[in-house]
Amino acid sequence: MSSQNLETAWEAIKEKVINSPGTIAPQAKAFFDRLQIQAMSDGFLMITADNDFIRGWIERHMVESIQQACQDLYGMPFMVMVEVDPTQRPAEQATGPAAENANAEHSTAPQGSTVETAPTPAEPKPEPKAAAPTHTRKDTRSNSIKTLTFENFVIGESNKLAYSMAVNVADEPGTLALNPLFIYGKSGLGKTHLLRAIQNQICETYPEMDVVYVDSAEFVDEFTEGAIEHDRNKSSFRNFKTRYESADVLLIDDVQFFQGKKQTLDMVFQIFNKLKDEGKQIVLAADRAPKNIDVDERYQSRFSSGGICDIQPPDIETKLGIIRSFANECKRVSGRTDLVIPREVEAYIAEISSSNVRELKSAVTKVVTHMTYSGTTEITKEQVGRLLENHFSSRSAVQLTVENIQRQVEDFYQISHADLVGKNRQRHIAHARHVAIYLSRQLIDVPFADIGKRFNRDHSTVMNSYRVIEGKLGENHDLNEELETLRKLILEL
Q1: What is the pLDDT of residue 439?
Q2: Tens-digit pLDDT profile for residues 450-477
Q3: Mapping DSSP to helix (H, G, I), strand (E, B) and coil, where does residue 457 land?
Q4: Is residue 158 within 8 Å of residue 312, measured between CB atoms?
Q5: Closest CA to 100 of 255, 295, 290, 312
Q6: Strand partners, 42
Q7: Cα separation, 267 vs 230, whole angstroms
Q8: Residue closest to 441 by CA, chosen among 459, 456, 424
Q9: Closest by alpha carbon to 104, among 27, 159, 28?
Q10: pLDDT < 50 stretches in the chain
């Protein structure tokens, strides 16, 4: 089979799997981006992944769906083989603040040309650059923390770059291009989940490595306590420093909390520089980009010296994926796999929910718990509406209107309503119009035709405006900042 025919066949298989019942489309698409077809004949398909984690996930979660798709398309049973090709790598991530999103669109696309023969057997995974300590590390993570893995992280357009970078770091800690890795986004979007997933995978893959996760508030408390004890008990402060300076992987959450704490920042800087110089992996998370954290420029520069990526609020499709995935987990844990949450109820929860993933999961937990203890196996949209009436902290999407969004966009960009909905094509006005249309679709999820009526435009024109903004998200950091600011303004109405 020619290379072109191989690709055509692979595209048909992927489309069949993505559209099959029970598939979480954004997640499937993200994993397919990390696969490449290598060979295909009657009843046989070979594909390669770029690392062991991706291969393992595909074998556990998607091989059966791929086999079924092949059988549906070609009318015969198929054996699907998944191998690892370490040369099949995503595009090198941009580094530094000036290029922090330069490779976003291609971050998960596999490299290398398609061939018809099986790939050369994968070489053994290279050892991490950092020399691992010989001491035995005690695993003190709670069971709840251990459940935060890459496998149960629901992937969508809003987070797939961050997910891809996190997987690469966990697979090969200390890689220069992604050291440090800085992940940012507002509270509740999954930053901590990704940090814990990195921690869990490295602990499993490299059990000899010393992996330290710490929240910034905890770090400040430890540093303060150590500093107070320093004069009376020098070993206390020394133990504090040793804990972090001996780490092979250091993950610090909520870095923005270091603002205004000069002495703590100086200590973080010392530890950061020592670990970085030794090739140890550092991962940081915050609710804003490094340049927007109110710290000295030298800290911003160091935070920005590796890979930077943001997590945006989830779209409706990603929310649905989260709801279905977490509902299945809740039902499994409760032993009530007979519970049914209809599709229209899932869609309703996605529509009324905030962008906070924690709140979304707690809403699902509330629904499943109610069904478990009320003895019902199915629930209606009306019942869920009453159950979650006051659940979400921010104004729900169902209460917003296109007019609300238009007013905020007009104020933000300093343009008139007549220009926003009129025929003026000046660049800054057209940009504001595209943004308003995009946010209307994202925050309210009403049909394009309904949005078009409020902008005096037809369905296809509105859809094009939405795609203009969607196409720039991965590569335009300033646009991401604008959208995040506007979301906050709109949701605080």
Answers
A1: 92
A2: 889 999 999 889 989 988 998 887 677 7
A3: coil
A4: yes
A5: 290
A6: none
A7: 14
A8: 459
A9: 159
A10: 90-138, 143, 395-398
